[in-house]
Amino acid sequence: MKRRAFICLAATGAIAVVARPVFASQVRMDVYKDASCSCCGEWARAMTKADFNVVIHEEGDVAAMKAKLRIPDAMQGCHTAVADGYFFEGHVPLEAVWKVLNERPRIAGLTVPGMPGGSLGMGDDPNPSYDVFSLNKPDMKPSLFMRVGG
Question: Which domains, ranges and CATH numbers included, belong to the chain?
Fold first, then answer.
């Protein structure tokens, strides 16, 4: 009987470790941005407020990181973040970041191309409307991940 209780307890513990949600304070997020870009700084501050361990890298050549991650030109935003094996390109909303880190889809990362008004870090538009794309492995083909607003 003690053996059965031990096995059940061990199995429960293993499941709890594997199935637990990601908590931001446990996740390091490296943000690569141009030193002069204030909207990137706003996005990084929002990630810090969400309790991510944000490390900012103010790069003279942010394009090099985008090239290293193979982010297509048409899918690029103004900054690139890397966290827990995924990239988050541009003004990706916090809820999309959470969804990826908790569900662990088989993608390379998420992107919000350009700098859409009202996206996280891009002002206070009460009715923002933009798309968030995932980039699939290994071909980096974009797919609609979520629609914000409109």
Answer: 22-148 (3.40.30)
Mapped onto helix, strand or coil, the DSSP state of residue 97 is helix
**Cα–Cα nearest to 117, from 140, 91, 89, 138:** 91
Give the C-alpha separation, 30 to 128, whole Å: 26
Within 10 angstroms of residue 69's Cβ, the number of other Cβ atoms is 17
* Residues 116, 128 contacting (CB under 8 angstroms): yes
Enclosing H/E stretch for 43: helix 38-49
The model's pTM is 0.80
Query: What is the number of other CB atoms lying within 10 angstroms of the CB of residue 87?
Result: 24
CB 39 within 8 A of CB 122: yes
Burial of 140 (0-12, 13-18, 19+ CB in 10 A): middle
Output the CA–CA distances (angstroms, integers) from residue 44 to 33, 62, 78, 111, 144, in the order listed: 10, 15, 12, 15, 23
100-150 pLDDT, tens digit each: 999 999 999 999 998 777 776 667 777 888 999 999 999 999 999 999 997
